[in-house]
Amino acid sequence: MFRPTEFADLVHEALYLYQNGDYEASKGPWEEVIRLNGLFDFAYQGLGEALYKEEQYSEALTAFRQAKYITGYSNAFWEVRNLWMREHIMTLILSLSDRCSRQSLWIL
Hints:
Blueprint: H1 6-19, H2 23-36, H3 41-53, H4 57-67, H5 70-107
Helix pairs in contact: 1-2, 2-3, 3-4, 4-5
């Protein structure tokens, strides 16, 4: 008689939790799946999706990269970039404004 392995049970548990919106709880089983088989890309993708849903974009970026999941990586990268821009937008504007002011003085 065939029975699911611990590995299969963990994958099913992680998928069940994720699909029911319990992203935080799904991370534990995904991490355990990765511990059992670090080459199982789908576990990294599942972990990345859970991290992304929790807005932990830098961590999701790492997981998606490990999973070789281009779409997830691109989405997480976009969010990391947006966060950086929001945090630094005033510095960028002031720097550009200062640079433009200096150049206009040089021209005069």
